[in-house]
């Protein structure tokens, strides 16, 4: 005869259709066979369900597995859809980046030209200012 399945408190609660608190109360009362097991992340209470509950767990496990398979299929479809959307958006972004680069190229050239012109004007202004300040202040009426 096989031993009854050992479940966590939350799994036992789901299998019996009761709350986790009820499972803990039944463990303390002794109506359920419970065992505290040490794990790397801390102690875990394992519950051994009676034979009549084990059949319920087997049916629930089959239903759960079918539901899990459905969810996995849904996730795969969603991933495929999102991957398609993402690649489409990346392609659109690349097209927009190419258009912006083409539009920016003449503007960068114009900015370079204007910067050069600005430097020339600045040097001319500096020379004119230097020439104006060489005249004596009392000779302002002379041409």
Give a written overview of the molecule:
- The chain is mainly alpha-helical.
- It has 3 helices and 3 strands, in the order βααββα.
- The longest helix is centred in the middle third of the chain and has 84 residues.
Question: Going across the major beta sheet, what is the strand order?
Answer: 1-3-2
Taking pLDDT < 50 over at least 5 consecutive residues as the criterion, the unreliable ranges are none
Span between termini: 123 Å
Provide the gyration radius in Å. 41 Å
| Run of helices and strands | EHHEEH
**Strand tally:** 3
Give the SSE layout.
Layout: E1 6-8, H1 9-16, H2 20-29, E2 33-39, E3 42-48, H3 51-134
Antiparallel strand pairs: 1-3, 2-3
Task: Provide a quick synopsis of the model.
This protein is mainly α and 143 residues long. It has 3 helices and 3 strands.
Key structural traits:
143 residues, mainly alpha, three-stranded antiparallel beta sheet, 3 strands, 71% helix
């Amino acid at each position: 005869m096989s031993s009854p399945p050992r479940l966590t408190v939350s799994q036992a609660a789901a299998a019996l259709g009761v709350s986790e608190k009820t499972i803990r109360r039944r463990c303390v009362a002794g109506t359920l066979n419970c065992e505290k097991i040490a794990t790397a992340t801390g102690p875990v209470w394992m519950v051994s369900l009676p034979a009549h509950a084990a059949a319920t767990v087997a049916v629930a496990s089959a239903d759960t597995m079918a539901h899990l398979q459905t969810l996995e299929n849904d996730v795969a479809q969603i991933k495929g859809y999102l991957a398609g959307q993402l690649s489409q958006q990346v392609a659109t972004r690349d097209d927009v980046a190419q258009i912006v680069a083409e539009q920016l190229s003449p503007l960068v050239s114009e900015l370079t030209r204007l910067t050069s012109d600005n430097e020339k004007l600045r040097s001319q202004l500096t020379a004119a200012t230097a020439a104006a300040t060489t005249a004596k202040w009392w000779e302002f009426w002379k041409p």
